[in-house]
Amino acid sequence: MILDAQHPLSSGVTADSRLIRAYQGARPDVTPVWFMRQAGRSLPEYRELRVGTRMLDACLDPKLASEITLQPVRRHSVDAGIFFSDIVVPLKLVGVDVEIVPGKGPVLGKAVRTKADVQELTALDPAVLDDALAPIREAVSLTVAQLGSTPLIGFAGAPFTLAAYLVEGGPSKDHLHARALMHSDPEAWQQLMAWTADVTGRFLRAQVVAGASAAQLFDSWAGALSLADYAASVAPASAAAIAHVRDLGYTEHRVGADAVERNVPIVHFGVGTSELLKEMHNIGADVVGVDYRLPLDEASRRLGGVVPVQGNVDPALLTAPWPVLEAHVRDVLERGRAAPAHVLNLGHGVPPETDPDVLTRLVSLVHSVSAES
Ligand code: 1CP
Fold first, then answer.
1. What is the CATH number of domain 18-372?
2. Chain segment 78-94, per-residue pLDDT in tens
3. Could you tell me the distance, in angstroms and rounded to a whole number, from the CA of residue 164 to the centre of ligand 1?
4. Which of 84, 167, 195, 293 fits as disulfide partner to 39, beta carbons 3.0 to 4.6 Å?
């Protein structure tokens, strides 16, 4: 489907930004940079706005969600906004009993452990999201109207990461129940994954159609899986989730050049997924996000040297003395040159205790170092 003429990619407002060019595999003069979890607890202005509002209520308040999305863009001059929401928002909107507990994360009213539980869950009709996602579409429209030429990234959780919360009933370390269900009842597992792919895919599509210029699928907990389990029992559902946005495109008109049809870029990110990078690319992603465990030159080699990469500053170093962090960032930028294009990010989210001034300084370091070389 071609995005409408007002969409920031179709109208040309964000199509030539550093972020979108890098996601398309070009190397802009300056390496773009944004941070996973840039909107959130490391910012005092975020904590102030959130007083008295529960996390999921904040996500469903278009003005609030939009303002929180814009805060880090104004403060740090990052090259993208990441939409303020959560991976469990579409579960809530489809009727799942889920809350985000402060200091803990998503907690379910009831864990989904048996075939009967899966049947009860999947009886909830994903089509209700078409109306229920209205506050999300509104928040995205408000946000892109303010962002101008800075692209907004929409996101969703991958089916496995969502299933890990659904089956465990909340955050867990090893996702043992989820991995056990995968093998003890493959049929129920497939049903759960297919339903989750539909729910999360619709959430992602709504954000892009409403104005996001790129989409990121977070499979934060896929690193708990063997390559064989990932390929057989998870990757097909992630591909199905991505298929909800894979057909979205726009026509680019550049002065003095023929019009070109382009797809909305899709990034796929996981934690501890060094062994899964190739499979994660193969499900239909354009860009692969790399955590801090693998240097980007090696990650790029594993991806055949042809895939743009995103990452991979170690979040632990944000509290190190500045010269230590600076040397690390320079090394990440250097190794990132092995890939066709590189978007600098952290290897995982901004830790809540991070000094926001360090993030601002890091953005200007990335912009100035990459402009030098
Ligand atoms: O009260 C608060 O401030 C709650 C903290 C918080 C925030 C700010 C949660 C609870 N979610 C969010 C926002 C959020 N979540 C964003 C948008 C903002 C941004 O990136 O700047 C995004 C992209 C997410 C995505 C998300 N939620 C992921 C995938 C990314 C990742 O970090 O791996 C996951 C796994 C979640 C679940 C979740 N939500 C919240 C927490 C604390 C967690 C993790 C819990 C756990 O460890 O299992």
1. 3.20.20.210
2. 999 999 999 999 999 99
3. 14
4. 84
Give yes or no: 37 in active site: yes
What φ, ψ does residue 155 adopt, rounded to 5°? -150, 165
In DSSP terms, which residues pair with 288 in a beta bridge?
268, 309
39 is in an annotated binding site: yes
CA angle 92, 96, 98 (to 5 degrees): 65
Within 6 A (CB) of ligand 1 lie: 36-41, 55, 82, 84-87, 100, 102, 105-106, 155, 161, 171, 218, 220, 349
Q: Which atom of ligand 1 is nearest to the CA of 55?
A: 1
Every domain of the chain and the residues it spans = 18-372
Count CA atoms closer than 13 A to 133's CA, side-chain side: 24
Residues whose CB is less than 8 angstroms from the CB of residue 359 and which lie 6 or more positions away in sequence, other chains included: 35, 38, 42, 72, 76, 318, 350
State how far the alpha carbon of 154 is from the alpha carbons of 71, 85, 202, 358, in Å. Answer: 16, 9, 12, 25
165 is catalytic: yes
Length reported for the chain: 373
47 is catalytic: no
